[in-house]
Amino acid sequence: MSRTDPLPFIRRTLLAWYDRHSRDLPWRRTSDPYAIWVSEIMLQQTQVATAIPYYERFLKRFPTVESLARARVSSVLKQWEGLGYYGRARRLHEAARLVVRDYGGRLPSSAEELRRLPGVGRYTAGAIASIAFGAGGAALDGNVIRVLSRLMLLEDDPATAQGQAVFWDWAERLAPRRDSGLWNQAVMDLGATVCTPRQPLCLLCPLGEACRARADGRQNELPAKTPRKAVPHYDVAVGVVFNDGKVLIDRRPAGAMLGGMWEFPGGKRLDGETIEECLHRELREELGITVGDVRPLVTTSHAYSHFRVTLHAFECRLATGRPRPLKSECLAWVSPAELDRYAFPRGSRKIIEAFRQRDR
């Protein structure tokens, strides 16, 4: 390794390691830019093992960008159900329509043009351009940040704008002009399998000789971490409202969190309010109804990226009023057997399973 310029050694060594140790992933068995694009969107904030079955089912249902563009957003959300961060699915669907309309169904090949598509930021554009089209350039995800912080002893906080600029600069410096797609995947694989967040496998690392953090014994300190803020928690009352053998569900507005997903009506408990008082208030404000025969059904917790909720679900019967979508996009009365046709977030799925188990 050259003491004056370690970059050629780093590139050569890591690419040789990747040739022998690359992960066998389904999106690496195709050269279809559309399939690679879908994988990159799914991998945003989702682990590889979780994404694989969703990726395979999604492509079976929507094998081309044209088929995705023609689909209803409700069908897309149903295929995405359980994967979380549903805004990704809505933006992917919107972007597919733009690709068909503005690019003749062919995904643009440059990172600059890709970034014009909804849901495609700098990292995703760089990954698609380099992997699917062989364009030069870097891709910077959490795995890459971890490798760079240790390899080059970068102490900047990657959560800050200044830190992002430093890491992007180093990612661009290291990425070769040729084989940048292989290079980007190699760094990602190194971060996922060897240069792990805790207890990195330094003795197995092909770049151990060049790693500055390892030389200083600081590999477990990097990357720098922003102190975590307290995660807010909310209690939410949910009404599973029955009438004539059917249950009431509503669809969240497109621009809201979980937009386009179906759920059982309800909302956050206010200070000084019991959870059952919250239920009656929310159903009155959201639907213009009152309910009776209220019985606890299930209590379940769910964590989102920036907060946690405890859902307190109650089975109840419509007493007075005709339900109206005062705060939602639309309503539907459906039989319990029909619920599987609709896309629900995970918390609502737990509620559905609870009353099905009770009935069994």
Q: Structural class from helices and strands?
A: alpha+beta
Which value, in Å, is the CA radius of gyration?
24 Å
**Average predicted confidence as pLDDT:** 95
Helix content: 40-55%
The H/E string reads HHHHHHHHHHHHEEEEHEEEH
Shape: elongated
Strand content: 15-25%
Helix segment tally: 14
Instruction: Say what oligomer this is.
Output: single chain
Topology:
Elements: H1 7-21, H2 33-42, H3 48-61, H4 65-70, H5 73-80, H6 87-103, H7 111-114, H8 122-133, H9 142-151, H10 161-174, H11 180-193, H12 212-216, E1 233-243, E2 246-251, E3 262-263, E4 266-268, H13 275-287, E5 290-303, E6 308-320, E7 330-334, H14 346-359
Parallel strand pairs: 1-6
Antiparallel strand pairs: 1-2, 1-4, 2-3, 2-7, 5-6
Please, could you describe this protein's structure?
There is one protein chain. With 360 residues, the protein is an alpha+beta fold. It has helices at 7-21, 33-42, 48-61, 65-70, 73-80, 87-103, 111-114, 122-133, 142-151, 161-174, 180-193, 212-216, 275-287, 346-359; strands at 233-243, 246-251, 262-263, 266-268, 290-303, 308-320, 330-334. 43% of the residues lie in helices and 15% in strands. Strands 1, 2, 3, 4, 5, 6 and 7 form a seven-stranded mixed β-sheet that branches. The chain starts with 6 loop residues before the first helix and ends with a helix. The mean pLDDT is 95.
